[in-house]
């Protein structure tokens, strides 16, 4: 279901521009407009739901597809182990940095990253 006030739903519907790197029946991936690393991609399901808290058993296949797509786009960007690797992040809640309440996977790479994050 598309939410007219959701920026990601508007991108998916083609109403807002984005630098797409992947599109299929279940999700899209595009470059973040405020990158936190040299490569910062967002993998977003076409189905609108706010966060991982709304992940139900019925969405199991979709959630797996998002992670497989994250790996695919990371590798397409050259972020494999030879390229230093990459980090995937799913923020759930405003207190940990979620600013768009449409589930999405961040794919970050191209620079060293510390641990723990945050």
Structure in words:
24% of the residues are buried. The protein has a five-stranded antiparallel β-sheet, with helices on one face. A hairpin with a 7-residue loop joins strand 2 (27-31) and strand 3 (39-45). It has helices at residues 7-12, 60-76; strands spanning 20-23, 27-31, 39-45, 86-89, 105-109. It is 19% helix and 21% strand. It has a single domain (7-109), classed as HIT family, subunit A (2-Layer Sandwich), CATH 3.30.428.10. The protein has 118 residues and is an alpha+beta fold.
Rounded mean pLDDT score:
95
Strand fraction equals 15-25%
CATH topology description = HIT family, subunit A
Total helix count?
Answer: 2
Distance between the termini: 32 Å
Highest CATH level, the class = Alpha Beta
The secondary structure category is alpha+beta
How many domain units? 1
The major pleated sheet works out as: 5 strands, antiparallel
In the CATH hierarchy, what is the architecture at level 2? 2-Layer Sandwich
Task: Give the number of DSSP strands.
Answer: 5
Poorly predicted parts? none
CATH superfamily: HIT-like
Radius of gyration: 14 Å
